[in-house]
């Protein structure tokens, strides 16, 4: 591996071939109900 980065593949990448996907956000924080159960 050299110090120089080869970006020829990135420069020639065709973005039109990508598929559109839906982003789904996940809530990883505990809800208030879970917090109440822990304190009980």
Topology, element by element:
Elements: H1 8-11, H2 32-39
- Residue share in helices? 25-40%
Structural class call reads mainly alpha
Low-confidence spans = none
- What string gives the helices and strands in order? HH
Largest sheet: none
Q: Which overall shape is indicated by the principal axes computed on the Cα atoms? A: elongated
Q: Provide mean pLDDT, rounded.
A: 80
Strand content: under 5%
The first-to-last residue Cα distance is 58 Å
Radius of gyration: 23 Å
Tally of distinct domains: 1
Count all strands and give the number: 0
Q: What's the number of helices? A: 2
Main location: cytoplasm
Region (Disordered): 21-40
Protein name: Thymosin beta 4 X-linked
InterPro entries: Beta-thymosin, Beta-thymosin_sf
Report on the structure:
It is found in: Cytoplasm, Cytoskeleton. The chain has 40 residues and is mostly helical. It has one domain. The chain has two helices and no strands. The model has no long low-confidence stretch (mean pLDDT 80).
